[in-house]
Specification:
Chain lengths: 181, 203
């Protein structure tokens, strides 16, 4: 039988990337996302003894992430979010391949668009991007699967429009890509 | 560009290594909780004993005469006090430390004894408390039966059914809230202690 610390380490290792990406959806700044990640992990550690396996581990984790992120955002609301850290990171990758750079630019754009969504929409889109099934998203949010479907379609449409706006803003540099989700 | 491409890009994004260090549990806080729960357990055992003694006193000197001198009433009193005594003695035997212990979470003896006490609560909530309540109810029914031997059948039936309903209702509520309290207060501490015991045994 695994000890609490072993269980925790296993969960952290298996879900590190996924949870961190969800944090990035909530707070675009990588340093702030890292802070949020730490807080989520502290919550996971504290809640681990009460996890009885009634829900899927991933559902339980997403719920913790969602609740922690909401509290975190509330605390951060007065501070304007920025992508400076990410952009600085981008500038450093000057020698990287063009493809990787384009991917970074695309992600940057996506993060900017996600940052314009509402809290719940951010979580939903981050879970959709992680390819979490609709049923599980519904369980995390406590709403019906059909409602999740409606919300996802609406968010995808919104993201498409925001991405197009972003592209239009940089059309000369980007070459005028269109987004149809 | 379609959504799948975005999904792919999202999942392949750079993964800055989170600078995360596993938090250590706050042992002082847990020890405080363990001590508090043990005190609570001691207090409830103490109150149970006081209840038995007080009831015995009042029954013997005051209440018995109101119930009459029927043999059924005496049997009822014996059943009630039997249940009360067994519950009280069981509580003391199973949930109290019977040797000197240093209250430290690095002491295997202390952790084991605390776990034993708290697990007893869980066991008693599942088996002993319902059994004890059933016995208590049966005892009261016998006392009522003995006290109302000369009353009309209708009155006796009403009294028995009313008492049974009252016992089921109060017993059900008591067990429900006690279990809720166990889940809320004892269960997290039991989990912590189980982890600690595991670690202590691995050392």
């Amino acid at each position: 039988m695994l000890t609490r610390e072993e269980k925790f380490k296993q969960i952290e290792l298996d879900n590190r990337s996924r949870i961190f990406r969800i944090c990035r959806a909530y707070v675009p700044d990588p340093d702030e996302a890292n802070d949020l990640y730490q807080e989520i992990m502290v919550q996971v550690w504290q809640s681990l003894p009460t996890f009885r396996g009634e829900a899927k581990l991933s559902t339980w984790l997403y719920r913790i992430a969602l609740n922690t992120a909401i509290v975190f955002r509330r605390k951060q609301q007065r501070q304007p979010t920025s992508l400076t850290g990410h952009e600085a990171q981008l500038a450093d990758t000057g020698s990287a391949k063009t493809e990787a750079l384009e991917q970074e630019q695309l992600l940057n754009k996506l993060h900017r668009c996600i940052a314009q969504l509402q809290n719940q929409e951010r979580l939903i889109i981050s879970l959709v991007l992680e390819e979490v099934p609709y049923k599980e998203i519904a369980e995390v949010l406590g709403i019906s699967t059909s409602n999740v479907g409606v919300k996802i379609n609406r968010i995808k449409k919104k993201i498409g429009q925001l991405m197009e706006k972003e592209t239009a803003g940089n059309s000369e540099r980007e070459g005028g890509q269109s987004y149809g989700f | 560009m379609d959504f799948e491409q975005l999904q792919k890009a999202w999942q392949q994004q750079a993964k800055p290594e989170p600078t995360y260090a596993a938090p250590k549990s706050d042992q002082a806080q847990i020890l405080k909780q363990v001590k508090k729960l043990r005190r609570k357990l001691f207090f409830s055992n103490f109150m149970m004993t006081v209840g038995v003694v007080a009831n015995a006193f009042f029954f013997h000197f005051f209440w018995m005469k109101d119930f009459g001198d029927s043999a059924w009433t005496k049997v009822g009193v014996i059943v009630i006090f039997g249940a009360l005594l067994v519950a009280s003695i069981g509580g003391w035997l199973k949930s109290s430390p019977w040797s000197r212990q240093s209250p430290s979470l690095s002491s295997k003896k202390f952790v084991k004894s605390s776990l034993k006490s708290f697990r007893f609560i869980y066991g008693s909530l599942r088996i002993f408390v319902p059994l004890y309540m059933a016995l208590f109810g049966i005892g009261l029914q016998l006392m009522i039966y003995g006290a109302m031997v000369e009353s009309s059948t209708l009155h006796r039936v009403i009294a028995h059914i009313g008492l049974a309903m009252l016992m089921v209702f109060t017993g059900g509520l008591t067990i429900y809230f006690q279990r809720l309290q166990y889940q809320e207060k004892y269960e997290p501490v039991v989990q912590e202690l189980e982890n600690m015991l595991q670690e202590l045994e691995q050392e």
